[in-house]
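dumping this here before i forget
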Amino acid sequence: LANGTNLQEAIDHLVHVEVKRYPLGTHRPVGKVVQVLGSDAEAADDLDIVCCKHDLPRSFPATVIKAAENLPSKVKKTDIKKRLDLRNILTVAFSKNEPGTTNSEFNDAPQAEQENLSEGAAENEFDPTSFLSDPPVERALSIETLKPGRWQVGIHISDAAEYVQPETPIDREARKRGTAAHLGDKIIAVLPEILNERCSLLPDTERLAFSILLTLDESGELLEYEIQTSVIQIDYHLTYEQAQAILEPGDAEEHPLSSALRPFLDQLGAASQAARQTRLKRGAFELNLPDANSHFDDEGELGAFAVAPPAQSAVSELVVLANQAVATHLQALGVPAIYRVQPMPDPADIQEFIKLSNNLGGELYLETEEEVLPFDFQRFTQQFAGLKSERVLTYLLEDTMKPAVYSTTPKPHFGLALSEGYTRCTSPLSRYADLLVLRVLQAVFEQGRSSRTTRAKEKVDLHHSSCHGQITWNVLPPDLHHEFETEFASAVVHLTERERVAEDAESDLQGLKKTGLMKERTGQTFQGLITGVQSYGFFVEIEVRPPESDILRVEGLVHVSSLKDDWYEYRSRQQTLVGRKNRNQYRLGDRVEVQVKSVDYYRQQIDLVAVGGGSQAFDDDE
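structure:
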């Protein structure tokens, strides 16, 4: 084994195996043990288990590190000359956490150990240099009042396309990884740490950027916009918690940045609220999910807005509007692009949801049985808001939604109620698809044709929305246009798959953390909510508060065989288990008291037994 472990001593241990040859005919499969994880699943590190299970890279090749180190560390004067200079505009970066020292465990190690780890890490071995402790700061916002009731909002995105050139070692590695995986307090990054540091939008540092400048009126209508390569300088960095403290000062001392940033945040809030009203008017909806936690300031993995604190919602609203503007611009230019699309839910699934919701006190219906509209979802969420069963109904509604995917064709996006295409370009350090969109814009600005012929006197502005409807020629050179088309066609399936892998890995790590936590609580009782009922038992969501941590919501199964007091019948239409004799029932949305019976850590299974709760069935329940 590469790390020197004696395999004889690892018998019955959990290991990570790399398949060298699959079975063929009489030939047996051949594999290589690349890492011994531990004597069993509980002895192994959670992060190791998840990385091995999903084959996530835990080190960057030396060629990639070297290429990143050779990139310029400062903005050059020649770069500034050919860009829009926005350094004098008040610009604020936002994130969930304070930007700290990334890779603190690695950086705190002795220098000799650091060199050994970064240079000598074997392939597939744990390498701290591959993990970030803090996500890069990829976008910042500015806002100016043009006249009463009209704003110019700037969404400024780190220009990763300037540093990550096509078919370089950095580019090939980023394409392979696809998207960053957020595993607890560690991030498996798309780009090496040194490059993230050079591109992150940090205070008092000049950065190359793409700036999307949106002109909005007080009704939220997007009047015009332009997209420019720019140079910016961040004045402040705020966490969403800090922004909220400035907007809603409590009894404590006023935040030190209140006087400087309160007007800025008030303007940003007003503009975002206007944009939100426009989004809601076209039928978009918001889901009130207790654990909605997107790693990006946009529509997130769900494909739709989830209820979030006001400061975070304000940023997300404007970021999504910027992405929407870029999609519209790329279509108007007639150039290849990567779009984010989300199909409508299956009408049959929605009809089943309506039946269940009506059993739980809702009075829902579809306008038409042939199709489902975002307006239907908006109406559903408004109708069951405040009901006792709101959380369960929200979970059920979420389950009917289809996953969003990447496509080279602009198609509808259900969660955002967009019929003409949507793209994402605001996280180019964390999502390779976003980087590709910026690359197309860069090509348009550098090589695009602004008129039909070179002799034409009138030219269009390829940066501005005023060119829409005026272009009757191919903007990009034919060879470059074809190159982008070919690359994007081969990339969309891979990038969608990489996002699914990252989501599954994040879910797995959460599952291991939760089962580990519940194993320590075996025998304890909890109040819970029935979130699903099947013929073999019912699922219960319970809330656990670990020391010095937020509430965790954990789901376990009460198996029907553990219900000893009666023989229980399953009624699928009502999602209910009903006792034949005592008429006690366990129904979707009921509150129950359960005891933790056993926990299977590796399979992430939590077995519960019911010790109280449920409800009484009546004749009309049959």
